[in-house]
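Cast an eye over my tokenised protein here and flag anything odd:

===
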Amino acid sequence: MFIQSIPFYFINKSQWLSNISKDISFPLLVIIFNSTIIMAISTYLTHNYIENHFFISYLINWSRSAIVAIPLFFFVVQPLIHRLFNWLKSHHKFQ
């Protein structure tokens, strides 16, 4: 009974995910997951939060790190990695 009441777009998520390139979706997921864990640990350990407002301070710190980490990866690190591998392919014959 419950499954019949769920709209179709909630069931068929693979169609939505197939429209997003894996070159974007997987690194973005890894960056978000890693920054979530690291910011939670660093916010707690450094006591870098407003008194009795850990979650709000965590969200502020997480948004700051995401604003830096996501463009840094896609505009600096990823092109450097592609250039490095292209250079290795052109200079060394892998078998």
